[in-house]
Specification:
oxidoreductase activity, acting on the CH-OH group of donors, NAD or NADP as acceptor, 3-oxoacyl-ACP reductase, Sc_DH/Rdtase_CS, Rossmann fold, seven-stranded parallel sheet, NAD(P)-bd_dom_sf, single chain, alpha/beta, 7 strands, oxidoreductase, globular
Length: 249
């Protein structure tokens, strides 16, 4: 029960890693607010998660400041505070650099990077008044090393890493810690929908010393650690969860 009594917000929690993070937070004793761009999806996830604790759900476009502000305001109204923000919402498309259209570039940066900025800024304003809080951002090993056909995704995740470091510096005086999780190859719907050829996905396994793809639960465990008081002297860093993959690169 490392998060007992904490109020946590998890974005992009309608499925996959986001839902796993929310479930882990609940299992650790937190009250959890989840959001997703699709109303039906987040409501279904809330129904599944209700078995583990108190859950509140919202349909939110993380690129829309008014949407995010309304969710944060309602969270504070209902629960009185926000202790944890997990910025998980994200999208990915597998496309060669020479074929990326402006819309796909802009959409990827908007959801992954600008969405993280908007959610963090609004939640941090609440945390600053409390003089405490923990923000954990979803980055990626793609934010540390490049990978072909994912220029827009790579750029967004590298931006999240540096955004997190800057936030950690500026928010430390308010008692707010900021860290990033950098997963490698994880079995998710997003990974399957990205359009990467199956043969290239198989090549990942040859690069991973543990010889398997990671699970959503393993990423959620890392989020729970950095969100907890066990990580009270950790801020401005990246925790890589990749089975050792980038040791080769």
């Amino acid at each position: 029960m490392r998060l007992k009594g904490k109020i946590a917000v998890v974005t992009g929690a309608g499925r996959g890693i986001g839902e796993a993070i929310a479930r882990k937070f609940l299992q650790e004793g937190a009250t959890v607010v989840i959001c997703d761009a699709l109303k039906a999806r987040v409501e279904e996830a809330a129904g599944r998660l209700a078995a583990f604790g108190t859950v509140q759900s919202f349909a939110v476009d993380v690129t829309n400041r008014e949407d995010v502000q309304a969710m944060i305001d309602e969270t504070v109204r209902i629960f009185g505070r926000i202790d944890i923000l997990a910025n998980n919402a994200g999208i990915a498309r597998f496309e060669p650099f020479l074929e990326i259209e402006d819309k796909n570039w802009n959409d990827t940066l908007a959801v992954n990077l600008t969405g993280t900025f908007i959610c963090s800024q609004i939640a941090a304003r609440v945390m600053a008044k409390q003089k405490s809080g923990a923000i954990v951002n979803m980055a990626s090993t793609n934010g540390i090393l490049g990978e072909e056909a994912l220029a827009h995704y790579n750029a967004s995740k590298a931006g999240i890493v540096l955004l997190g470091k800057t936030m950690a510096i500026e928010l430390a005086p308010y008692g707010i810690r900021v860290n990033s999780i950098c997963p490698g190859s994880i079995q998710t719907d997003l990974a399957l929908e990205g359009g990467q050829p199956a043969e290239e996905l198989e090549q990942y396994f040859a690069k991973i010393p543990l010889k398997r793809r990671g699970s959503t639960e393993e990423v959620a465990n890392a989020f729970a650690f950095l969100a907890s008081d066990e990580a009270s002297f950790i801020t401005g860093t990246e925790l890589v969860v990749d089975g050792g993959q980038i040791c080769h690169e």
